[in-house]
Amino acid sequence: MERKQTAVLVAGSWGTALARVLADNGHDVRLWTRNPEQVEEINLHRTNARYLPNAELPTGIRAMTGLNEVLASAELVLFVAPSSAMREVARAAAPYLEPEALVVHATKGFETDTLKRMSTVLAEELGRDEDNVVCLSGPSHAEEVIIRHPTTVVVASGNPTCAEAVQDFFMNEAYFRVYTNPDVIGVETSGAVKNIIALGAGLSDGLGFGDNAKAALITRGLAEIARLGAAMGANPLTFAGLAGIGDLIATCTSRHSRNWRAGSLLAQGLPVEEVLKRIGMVVEGIRTTKFAHELAARYGVEMPITEQLYAVLFEGKTPESAVGDLMGRVRTHEIEEIAAASREKWLK
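User: That's the sequence. What structure does it adopt?
Assistant: Structure tokens below.
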């Protein structure tokens, strides 16, 4: 594989793990952070201990604080900033971006004020056609990718040439397999909303419920994701793939999931502020619950799990009361409501 210059913004857990994939594939990787101490740690000690303890980074990764240095001659630029900071980071990067550089993001969430997807935010700030922005998503914990455990993801773009070019950058035969998908809306919506369901899974486990409850939560959570995604224009089949059910299973069942851990702490009666303090990193599911609640109202979509988690997070409802209200909902059919979302999509 030809060695190429790549840039990763920022040096959190997922950005660092994906930087390893690019370095393992023979590319030069410049990893951006605002923190000079983190730069020194990565470059001198080959570690990023706050985000990925005990992981040793390859020499192909070099950390820097200057965006002009990081982005100079970069043929691929990967944005992995938190959703709340994506616009700020993209705006700062825009003057230094090469016109022909591939633009990719691997952030799962919506923008705080506008509820826009990350590809839309990047397109606006970078002056790019949104079809040329690629989203990388799927069941992929940074803690496993950094130690080269087998992982399979999706890259989504309205431009198949861009998607395939990004696929070539990231895919390797050792541990990282990449599929392409044209449904950006479905992939981004799945990646964002599954974090809400993972909060619910952690809360369920924290309350001492068993596998029956978690299986129901995952399955009904997928129905909520599919209903919202279809209303936003996604292909319902996307939710049966890696970015949908695959990512949902990984996030709802893994000890690596910050969202699961946050839900488990909520079940102990801790306030949101204390939960975030204990996790010590961004928990996208908490913010996304608020945004998805607003999107459900905007699109007229029923999302009962999201509604109850919103009440727990922002209205002081107890987890026990939320579970009781979910179980006591009016009886309904399972298949017909999912099929209706598919029919609405394809009959337009």
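The CA atoms of residues 12 and 51 lie 6 Å apart.
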